[in-house]
Structure formats: C-alpha cells, structure tokens
C-alpha cells in the first residue's frame, strides 16, 4: 500500500501534469481507503479551481473602439 506521503505528492503532481494510468489507479485505490488523502485531494481541487480563476486572463479587448474626437490646436 502506498504511503500517504507518496499519495500527497502524486496529487500535487497531478495538478501540474496529467498522471499516468498507473498513478491514477494507485491514487484511486488509496483514496478509497484513506479518508485523510481523500480530503486532501478535494482541497487541492478547490485550490486549483481558485488558482485557475485568478490565473485566467480576460479575453483580449475584442470590442475596442477608438474614441478620439475633438482636436484643438492652438
Ligand atoms: Zn492516505
């Protein structure tokens, strides 16, 4: 059985890169048996969602109207 420390690392890795099938399998099996890691995984997902929201950059100004009226020379 995997240690919780390894599982935590795997969950953390999964945030940055897609896990392999084997890793996901090990993760799932452990999460089914370990409540602590299961909770940890949920927390990480929440954090990730938040990070994505903050990290998201708004669409480039697609509706950009040039407003430049009124010239005064003098
Ligand atoms: Zn665990």
Average of pLDDT:
85
What's the helix count?
3
Span from first to last CA? Answer: 82 Å
Strand content: under 5%
Named once each, the bound ligands are: zinc ion
Describe the main β-sheet briefly.
none
Number of strands: 0
Report the structural category. mainly alpha
Q: Which series of helices and strands comes N to C?
A: HHH
The Cα radius of gyration reads 23 Å
- pLDDT < 50 stretches: none
Shape: rod-shaped
- The proportion of residues forming helix, as a percent range, comes to 55-70%
What does this structure look like?
The chain has helices spanning 4-16, 21-33, 35-55. The chain has 74 residues and is mostly helical. The mean pLDDT is 85. The site of zinc ion has 6 residues, from helix 1 and helix 3. Zinc ion binds next to helix 1 and helix 3.
Q: What's the structural blueprint in terms of helices and strands?
A:
Layout: H1 4-16, H2 21-33, H3 35-55
Bound molecules: zinc ion.
Zinc ion binds at residues 4, 7, 30, 34, 36-37.
Could you list some keywords that capture this structure?
single chain; mainly alpha; rod-shaped
Would you kindly provide a brief summary of this structure?
The chain has 74 residues and is an all-alpha fold. The protein has three helices and no strands.
């Amino acid at each position: 059985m995997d240690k919780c420390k390894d599982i935590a690392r795997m969950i953390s890795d999964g945030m940055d890169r897609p896990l392999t099938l084997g890793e996901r399998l090990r993760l799932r099996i452990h999460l089914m048996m370990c409540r602590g890691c299961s909770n940890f995984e949920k927390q990480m997902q929440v954090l990730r969602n938040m990070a994505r929201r903050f990290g998201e950059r708004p669409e480039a100004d697609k509706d950009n109207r040039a407003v430049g009226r009124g010239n005064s020379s003098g």
